[in-house]
Each structure stands twice: as C-alpha cells, then as structure tokens.
C-alpha cells in the first residue's frame, strides 16, 4: 500500500506534465505512467522506432512520445481525439512533426 501511495505521490506531478509537450524522463517511467495513469497503450510506431503513439481507445486520449538513444523519452504532443476508438494511423498521419527536435 505504501509503495502505491509513494508511487502516486512521486509520479502524479510528472505525469500531469507529461501530458504537455516536450516533457522528458526515463522511458520506463514515462511508459509506466501512460499505462497506469491514463490507460494508454502503444498503438503505432514510426518506421525507425523513435516515435510511438500511445492511445486509450475508450477515452480517446493519446500521447506521442519520442524515444532517445540515451534511454530518455519525451512527450511531443498529447490530446484527445474527441472520438473514442479513432484509428491510430489517422492520429499519426495528422501529426505535422513541427515539435520534433
């Protein structure tokens, strides 16, 4: 129980920020937060594996994450499709890449 409360207290602020653009943390921390806090799962991966689109098909939330060779991961963008169950390829295709660094 303490471990769960500790995890929530430690990562809740980080995950709130992670839903904004360009927030970075270790890939494992970011992945765990997207799964545990937002119920998202990876649904689309770029050809080189450096970007992954996470989505919760039930709620329509999504997060686009860039994975760095250093083991860090950074959110590039996030939002809600407004349409639960929207196709991942539609979200990925509509992303213009303007915040990619």
Write up this protein.
- The protein has helices spanning 2-18, 27-38, 88-94, and strands spanning 24-26, 41-45, 51-55, 61-67, 72-80.
- The chain is α+β, with helices and mostly antiparallel strands.
- It has a five-stranded antiparallel sheet.
- A hairpin with a 4-residue loop joins β4 and β5 (72-80).
- α1 (2-18) packs across α2.
- It is globular.
- Residues 1-19 have low confidence and may be disordered.
Largest beta sheet: strand ordering: 1-5-4-3-2
Strand content: 25-35%
List the secondary-structure elements in sequence, H or E: HEHEEEEH
Counted by DSSP, the helix tally is 3
Q: Helix fraction? A: 25-40%
- How big is the Rg? 13 Å
Mean pLDDT score: 74
**Could you tell me the number of beta strands?**
5
Report the span from N to C terminus. Answer: 40 Å
The low-pLDDT segments are 1-19
Instruction: Give the overall shape, derived from the CA principal axes.
Output: globular
Largest sheet: 5 strands, antiparallel
- Strand-pairing-aware structural class: alpha+beta
In short:
With 101 residues, the protein is of the alpha+beta class. The protein has helices at residues 2-18, 27-38, 88-94, and strands spanning 24-26, 41-45, 51-55, 61-67, 72-80.
Strands, helices and their partners?
Blueprint lengths: L1 H17 L5 E3 H12 L2 E5 L5 E5 L5 E7 L4 E9 L7 H7 L7
Antiparallel strand pairs: 1-5, 2-3, 3-4, 4-5
Please name the defining characteristics of this protein.
single chain; 101 residues; alpha+beta; five-stranded antiparallel sheet; 3 helices; 5 strands; 36% helix; globular; disordered N terminus
